[in-house]
Amino acid sequence: MMQHKYLRSAILLGLLLTLILLVGACATPSAPADTGAATDSGAAAADAEPAATGRGAGGDVNILFWQAVSIANPYLSGGTKDIFGASIVVEPLANYAPDGVMVPRLATEIPTLDNGGVAEDLMSITWTLRDDIMWADGTPFTAADVVFTGEYCMDEEMGCNAASNFTNVESVEAVDDYTVKISFSAAMPFPYGPFVGSTSPVLQQAQFADCMGLKAQECSDQNFYPVGTGPYKVTDFRANDTVVYEVNENYREADKPYFARVVLKGGGDAASAARAVLETGEVDYAWNLQVEPQILNAMEAAGNGQVVVTFGPAVERLIVNFTNPDPALGDKRSEWTPDDPNPHPFLTDYNVRKALSMAIDRTTIAEQLYGAGGTAGCNIVPNPPAVRSPNNDDCVTQDIDGANALLDEAGYADTDGDGVRETPDGMPMKILYQTSVNPVREKTQALVKQWWEQIGVEAELKSVDAGVFFGGDPASPDTYGKLYADIEMFTNTWDGTDPSSYMGNWQCEEIARAENQWLGNNIPRWCSEEYDQLYTELTETADPDARNAIIIQLNDLIVQDYAMIPLVTRGDVSGISNSLQNFQMNSWDSEIWNIADWTRGE
After folding, report:
1. What angle (nearest 5°) sits at the alpha carbon of residue 150, between those of residues 144 and 155?
2. E strands present in 115-204
3. Cβ contact 27:99 at 8 Å
4. Is 330 exposed, middle or buried (0-12, 13-18, 19+ CB in 10 A)?
5. What band does 350 get if pLDDT is binned at 50, 70 and 90?
6. What distance in Å separates the CA atoms of residue 444 and residue 369, rounded to the nearest whole number?
7. What's residue 187's pLDDT?
8. 465 pairs with which residues across the strands?
9. H helices within 423-497, ranges in order?
C-alpha cells in the first residue's frame, strides 16, 4: 500500500502541475483576422464610471437565455441553462473561479492535506461551514442541510443528475452544527465532487424534507422556488419562459447584490439573443451565443455590447443511441435494462459508427460555423492539457472513400438503387438526427446530413425547443435524456478542472432509463465492463500522473468505440452590455457564479 507521505507529495505535485497547465488551457486565443469574433477573459466596461453603489441600487439586470430555464433544482436537470439559473439562488460549499481554482462559498476554506481538512489516507474530507449564513427565509444554514442534500441526491430512487459527484461517498455526517465530514469507501485523491460547483449545491432540509426519492419530481414549489443562500430569491417562475429574482434580504454581504431584480427571459434563438445584447442593448447578458462569427462581428460593431469567449471542457458531440428508438416498441422505446439491452438495428455495429464519424469534416464545421469560438475536436475531454488524449487526432481528416469502403466490407449495400444502403437483413439505413433549436446546430445538422448521404445513410433532421430538450420533465418525449432518436447532438461539461466525476457518467449504472426518470448521465446507453473497471481503478488511484493516464484511457474507450462522436471543442461564447461591470466569464462553473458582484457603469 502506498505510504501516506508519498500520497501527500503526489497530490500536492499534481495540483500544482494542473494549475500550471490550466493557465495555458484557459488563456483566451486571439481572434483570427478573418473572423473577428471578440475574445476576452470576461471583465466588462473597464473604463466606465461606476454608478451609485449599495444593495438594490441598480434596478433591474436583464438576462436572456434562448434555452429557457425549466426548473430551478439542478439535481433534477442536466441542462446547463437550468444549472445556471439555479446558481443565482442555491450555492455549493465552494465554487470554481475563472482560473479553475476552488474558492470557498458556504465554507470557511478549502480543505486540503496541508490544513488537515483532507485525511492523510484520502478516505475523508471535512468541511468547516461559515456560521453567518442564513437561508432566504431567515433560518440558519447548518451542517444538517449539507447532510440532507447528500442523502437527497444519493437516494437510489431519486434519479439524481449529480449522482456521479457522490462517487464512493459512504456517508455525509454532521460533526457539529458547522462541521461536515464526508467519508469515502475508497481513497479519493480528488475528494471535491460533493457540494463543489454549481452542479452540486446545498438544498434547505426544511424545504425539501418531503421530496425524497420518487417524490422529488412531484415537489413543484420546491423545484421552482427553492429557498437558497445566494444573493437572490425566485419570486416568479414561469417554466420555459421567464424567471424573476429579487434580492435576498438575508444575504450575508450587506451591500450586495447591486441589482434589485434579475429578470431572466427565455426563448427565441441564439441570433436573437445576440442581437438583444450586442445591437439593440435590450439585455445586459446573453448566454451561449452559438451564432456564425460573421453575424456576431456585424452585431458587435453596433457598439452596445461585446462578445466574450473562454475555452474550457465544452465539446459539441453526437450521441449514438445503442438502443432501439422505434416508436412501435412503446415503453421499451430507447429503454435499456441489464437483462435486455434492446440493441439498435444497426448502430450497435462498430463499423457503422466509425463510418459515420469518418464522413464528417470537422474543420469545415469549426471554421464556417464557430470561427474563433471553436476548433475541430476529437476528444470528449479536451482540457486541461494534462488530460487531453493525443491518440485521436486523425478524426480531423474527413475520409468519405474510407467510410464507403468500410460499409461495403461490412455488408451494407444499396440494393434498390435509391441512394440509401440497407442492413444485411434489408432495413434501410435511415437515421433520425435531433438537436435543440439553434442556428449553428441546425447548420451543422445540414452539413452532416450531406456527408452521410455520400456514404448511403439518410438522415431526417429534427430540432426541439431548447427549453424542452434540456429540461428534466419525465413526461416529455423530447428531452435529450429520453433519446427518442437514433442520433442527437449537444454539449455538456463539468465543474472545475478535474474530470474524475464527469468520467463516471458513462458507467453502466448511469444509463438513462425509466428507472431513474431518464436523468442518468449515460445518454448513449453504452455499457462497457472494461470502462467500469477502469473507472473504479481511477477512483482508487492517488498518483496524479497515473490518474491523468487513466482519464485519457477512459476518453479513448468512449471515442474509439464511437459511443459519442466529438465534433468541435467549443469556446463558451456569451455577450455582455458595455455598461455591465464585474462580469467574469467562467468555463469551469456557472457563468453567473459571481452575480452578487455585478454592477453597472455609466
Report:
1. 125
2. 124-128, 169-176, 179-184
3. no
4. exposed
5. very high
6. 8
7. 87
8. none
9. 439-453, 466-469
Confidence of residue 474 (pLDDT cuts 50, 70, 90): confident
Residue 290, beta-bridge partner list: none
Closest to 204 (Cα-Cα) out of 241, 250, 246:
250
Give the number of C-alpha atoms closer than 13 A to the C-alpha of residue 591, restricted to the C-beta side: 28
- Answer yes or no: are the C-beta atoms of 544 and 17 closer than 8 Å: yes
pLDDT for 250-300, tens place per residue? 999 999 999 999 999 999 999 999 999 999 999 999 999 988 888 999 999
Query: Cell numbers at residue 228, please?
Result: 437558497
Instruction: Give the separation between CA 423 and CA 436, rounded to whole angstroms.
Output: 29
What CA–CA distance (Å, rounded) separates 355 from 565?
Answer: 11
Is residue 7 pLDDT above 90, yes or no?
no
In which band, very low, low, confident or very high, does the pLDDT at 532 lie, cut at 50, 70 and 90? very high
Grid cell, residue 432, equals: 433520425
Spatial contact of 540 and 187, defined as CB atoms under 8 Å apart = yes
Kindly state the helix (H) or strand (E) to which residue 90 belongs, with its residue range.
none
Report whether 261 contacts 245 (CB < 8 A): yes
Q: What pLDDT was estimated at residue 329?
A: 97
Give the H/E segment covering residue 139: none
Average confidence (pLDDT) over 552-562: 98
Beta bridge partners of 94: 104, 196
Query: E strands along 74-158, which residues?
Result: 94-96, 102-104, 124-128
Distance CA 232, CA 266 (A): 18
Average pLDDT over residues 64-72: 95
Bridge partner list, 413: 422
Distance of alpha carbon 493 from alpha carbon 489, whole angstroms: 14
pTM, full prediction: 0.74
State the pLDDT confidence band at 2, using cuts at 50, 70 and 90. Answer: very low
